[in-house]
Design a protein that fits this description.
By secondary structure, the chain is mainly α. 70% of the residues lie in helices and 2% in strands. The protein has ten helices and two strands; from the N terminus they run H-H-H-H-H-H-E-H-H-H-H-E.
Length: 356
């Protein structure tokens, strides 16, 4: 393999990894936005109060700014409701248009405005990194088309995420829209991990090998269980959002006691995560996959920290700083699962030259 081709692979590895790290940073920042109640710090999108650099004082806004942005969101929501009807979600469209909470306008708060603005800056930076990732993958179009198409699809999903973010704002942070906004992020993480692993090991292909069938089955179960747990967590978060509006931040220590069955299921389901990953670790250790030693430690740490932060939230009144950390740890664990899946199923590409 020529030096130019090797350099292309190294370049894609670097930019994909940087983009992946940036995605995790955005997830953390997004969690901070949620836990601090800053999601509506900017009532419009992509600008913030109609400005590329947000205001620092309410005096910089017109007197009727609240009504102005409410009207703009109503127009945008009507368009989004039409999209939902086209896709067959008539009930959700009606629910969206009849939800009076969407019309509630959050008063200007300079702190919350800048927290949300930083979130958007990080998102814009990821958009740039995603473009660079697709460009770095372009030289692979002739030899490894799937690598380029994965990078291109990742870029498209990032753009789609930006649009979904605008809908989250226009719907005034409707809990189910926040959940919908989160799911593509999981897919983007998996795609970037694939690009990192594949470009770093450019002479190998990733296939589900029969040799590792037992590991693949258990790992698949771990991935499925964690995905279910993340979805259950979003249901708990949606319930917390409703309770937070009713009890306010002052009564934060009472939030957990007002949670219902979703919280109990989410809490108990964590045992499934611990047990399934324990079985996975046993199989990996039994196969003596030394090359994954560092990932072993990371996987164990993420499971323990994810469960640990959940326990802290359950018994210490959902501290604001723990909420985003709990979410990021779950996403990192999800990423490590796919890292192991790809790495344990790599085989030498028979089409490469023996001298490579």
């Amino acid at each position: 393999m020529s030096q130019n081709i090797k350099n292309n692979h190294r370049g894609l590895t670097r930019i994909s990894f940087i983009t992946l790290v940036a995605i995790y940073v955005l997830i953390l920042v997004g969690g901070i936005v949620r836990s601090t109640g800053s999601g509506m710090g900017c009532p419009d999108w992509p600008k913030c109060f109609g400005q590329w650099v947000p205001p620092t004082s309410v005096d910089q806004l017109p007197e009727d700014y609240q009504q102005k942005y409410t009207d703009e969101r109503m127009v945008k929501n009507a368009k989004f409701a039409n999209y939902l009807r086209v896709l067959g979600f008539d009930e959700k469209a009606d629910e969206l248009l009849q939800d009076e909470s969407i019309l509630h306008e959050t008063p200007f708060n300079v702190y919350k405005t800048w927290v949300e603005y930083i979130n958007r800056l990080v998102g814009s930076f990821i958009g740039l990194l995603s473009i660079l990732t697709a460009i770095a993958a372009f030289p692979h179009l002739k030899t490894q088309k799937h690598v380029f198409y994965v990078a291109l699809t990742s870029l498209i999903l990032v753009v789609f995420q930006g649009w979904l973010g605008s809908i989250v704002v226009s719907t005034n942070l409707l809990p189910w829209m926040v959940t919908v906004h989160m799911i593509p992020a999981l897919v983007i993480v998996v795609m970037l991990i694939y690009l990192v692993v594949k470009s770093k090991n450019y002479s190998e292909v990733i296939v589900l090998s029969k040799e590792n069938r037992s590991i693949n089955i258990v790992l698949g179960i771990c991935i499925l269980l964690l995905f279910i747990q993340i979805i259950l967590g979003t249901q708990v978060r949606e319930a917390i959002d409703v309770i937070a509006l009713r009890l306010t931040e002052i009564d934060r220590d009472r939030w957990v006691s007002n949670l219902g069955l979703d919280f109990l299921i989410h809490r108990s389901f964590s045992w499934m995560i611990v047990i399934s990953h324990g079985v996975l670790m046993y199989l990996l250790f039994k196969r003596k996959m030394i090359r994954l030693n560092n990932v072993y430690g990371g996987l164990v740490a993420m499971v323990l920290l994810s469960v640990g932060t959940g326990v802290v939230m359950a018994y210490l009144g959902i501290p604001a700083f723990i909420q985003p950390l709990h979410l990021v740890l779950a996403f990192i664990l999800f990423g490590l699962q796919f890292w192991i899946l790809f790495k344990t199923n790599m085989q030498r590409d028979s089409s490469t030259n023996n001298g490579n």
